[in-house]
Amino acid sequence: MGRKLLLEHIDVPGIQTYDVYRNHGGYRSVEKALKTMSPQEVVEEVQKSALKGRGGAGFPTGMKWSFLAKPEGVPRYLVCNADESEPGTFKDRYLMEKIPHLLIEGMITSSYALGANTSHIYIRGEYMFVLDILEKAIAEAYANGWLGKNILGSGYDLDLYVSPGGGAYICGEETALLESLEGKRGNPRMKPPFPAVKGLFGCPTVVNNVESIAAVVPIINIGAEEYLKIGTEKSSGTKLISASGNLVRPGVYEIELGLSVEEFIYGDEWCRGIANGKKIKACIPGGSSVPILPHNLITKTATGETRYMSYESLSDGGFASGSMLGSGGFIVFDEDQCIVRNTWNFARFYAHESCGQCSPCREGTGWMEKVLYRLEHGQGNMRDIDLLEQINKKIEGNTICPLGDAAAWPVAAAIRHFREEFEWHVTNPQEALTRNYGLKKVAETL
Amino acid sequence: MVKVTIDDVVIEVEPGTTILNAARQAGGDIVPPAMCYYSKLEGSGGKCRTCLVEVAAGSEKDPRPMPKLVASCSTPVMDGMIVKNKTSERVHENRGAVTEFLLINHPLDCPVCDQAGECKLQDLAFEHGSSKTRYEEPRRTHEPIDIGNTIKLNQDRCILCYRCVYVGNQLCDSRVHGVMHRGEHAEISTYIENSIDNDFSGNMIDVCPVGALTDKTFRFKSRVWFLKPMNASCECTKCGGNAVVWMFGNQIYRVTARKDEYGEVQTIDGKTAWICNECRYDKKEVSKWNIEGPMKVDKHSVISQGHYDKPNPLNDSTKNLK
Ligand SMILES: Cc1cc2nc3c(=O)[nH]c(=O)nc-3n(C[C@H](O)[C@H](O)[C@H](O)COP(=O)(O)O)c2cc1C
Ligand code: SF4
Ligand code: SF4
Ligand code: FES
Description:
The structure holds two protein chains of two kinds. By secondary structure, chain A is of the alpha/beta class. Chain A is built from 18 helices and twelve strands. Chain A has helices at about 20-25, 30-35, 40-50, 60-65, 90-100, 100-115, 130-145, 175-180, 210-220, 225-230, 260-265, 310-315, 320, 340-355, 360-375, 380-395, 405-425, 430-435; strands spanning about 75-80, 120-125, 150, 155-165, 205-210, 240-245, 250-255, 260, 280-285, 295, 310, 330-335. In chain A, helix 3 packs across helix 6 (about 100-115). The radius of gyration of chain A is 22 Å and the shape is globular. Chain B has helices at about 20-25, 90-105, 120-130, 165-170, 205, 275-280, 315-320; strands at about 1-5, 10-15, 50-55, 70, 80-85, 145, 150-155, 175-180, 185-190, 215, 230-235, 240-250, 250-255, 265-270, 270, 290-295. In chain B, the strands form five sheets. In chain B, strands 2-1-5-3-4 form a five-stranded mixed sheet, with helices on both faces. Chain B is globular and about 60 Å long. Chain B has three domains: about 1-100, Ubiquitin-like (UB roll) (Roll), CATH 3.10.20.740; about 140-215, Alpha-Beta Plaits (2-Layer Sandwich); about 225-305, no CATH class. Chain B is α+β, with helices and mostly antiparallel strands. The two termini of chain B are about 40 Å apart. The chains are: A alpha/beta, B alpha+beta. At the A-B interface, helix 14 and helix 15 of A face helix 2 of B. Bound molecules: flavin mononucleotide, iron/sulfur cluster (SF4) (2 copies) and FE2/S2 (inorganic) cluster. FE2/S2 (inorganic) cluster binds near residues 47, 48, 50, 51 and 73 of chain B.
């Protein structure tokens, strides 16, 4: 049994409501922080815990907090990124829907640490029903004195707001999110300056993912030392994984980082293997933006070592034979799935979601989508495959925000590992329309 | 002052200067092309990616190279930074790629475009473009629309540099135009098509690097290289009245702001010499202007084709240059 820190009480009836949540140890971290710790001590505790950002980039949360500028007389903000729009990722929604007070508790403790007196949760527009749940929970927190003026008599004030986005993936990029929160078009900003210096309304701001903020609660409750014992040396704590695709039991799981991939896919406690007795063909372990792994590189690395669910093990082998933990969107493909079709589907997503500000991403994503559409629909040439590789090399690294890279990597990885399947679509256009390539020839281990 | 090396030129500039502006201070061919940055428009830059350069050494203190190419228009210099522009193979290659991206959906309708001859995209394509296209997909198309009664928008030619949006934001009293939609469907749009009605809106035409925004009072009247640009001034209380009148014989065909070598509106007496719509559209009589003399034209520009002496296209044009 893995240890649960976030979802421990998820099945308790009524845990959505304040009373039940409080009876199960809720808001203890706020008490502990406000009554016994200085803001700086909370920051240091989070730094010690080695918590890495759960939104995708994996940037150490404590370090991000320590970078926050603190000029005199200027407000500071904490903004929670609940825009969760990466295909394959649905853990934040689960957490907010099932146990909303955990996020609110995390927001209070974290805001206290950062010295923010106004904090925001920016939630994607499609999660309107979750917004209602959060607002209800916030009202309960106000009513019980956890929000508002002079919380717990400590002299600390905090107001918390939830704002919905308009339904754009790009508004999950932290600076686009801030633009959107300010009421503007959600175009990413040029960096520097970083939000820690100039963020919301030009003031120092920290943007963190829902899960990162929720994880602050157990870190303060059990202490960094205890938290460090969970997980691996380089990946501390637990992580929510959104498992989807051809699995017997897809869903949201809280794992201790360092669980083996094999155990996660086939273990009884977890996904229980591939649905309908099929074989696994490929896996995307961290959401649509990370490289896809062919079946021979999923449970083992290129050097034959066991692959684990951790930041370091999933990226073992770099882009040549590894991937990334990303946001924990774990997508599994069985032998009947078409890699070309899936690559086109992702390309279509990124082309649709590019904000269109910078030319390589605006034009490049649209171009790749069209070429992939032709390949998938039996109208491709061999030179299209090379063209795709060339286009994505020219997008990667040349854009304002990482969406350009996120669009380029899946295409590059799919061609790297499944080139023969792409070629088969060109040489057998009619057949490719009626059946899938299957499992026969997956690229050799590099 | 901080010292920065760009290609082989060493310059000292104020701290906080961007690489592009440092290069402009030195001048010459080390200056990267800039399609979206416009020094007079706050917040511009970073979008087109034509100004990408390689940073071979970050600074004196931290001489590591930067892994990615950076947008020179929005990256500040550091003391001891070493930048490679025209001497970098990577820059060359990626600038070519950016040029390709900008052109894949471009209609390539230079023969009927008013901007031809003074188009930044034409210059860029000439220098960094390829003579063949690899783009086999259908190109984006839009119907040209009027934005206001004096500006025509050809969205097909737009490179989404956002300069006109900043003009709307920063020069006009209320912005009624901006960018709609996302990704490759993004387009310049007005809230109500003809609501651009503002004393300074015409400057959008001057900042547009391509033929997406053109002056309806001049459209299809003449190719720019048949006209003589003359610096002219008038007593205008709104804008100061420092402009260029584009003449054929004794007739004024169009009026624009005065621009510098980078195509930006000049600074005159410490102020950016934007011109008002009255000067731009309503003063087409020579009597309304005090004509000061010919505008300086870069010798490589088609507009310089021997206007000021013998206009004989059969002669080698370079021989005509003084
Ligand atoms: C295109 C794009 C979309 C993103 N979407 C999200 C998102 O939906 N949720 C999220 O938490 N982070 C998202 N991120 C990452 C954020 O920019 C940012 O790194 C993150 O919110 C930081 O929080 P963390 O450090 O707690 O992970 C996205 C990044 C990019 C480039
Ligand atoms: S990379 Fe794409 S999404 Fe990001 S700023 Fe550029 S155009 Fe917008
Ligand atoms: S219309 Fe012209 S100025 Fe406006 S964004 Fe397009 S290219 Fe730039
Ligand atoms: S001029 Fe620098 S990105 Fe456009």
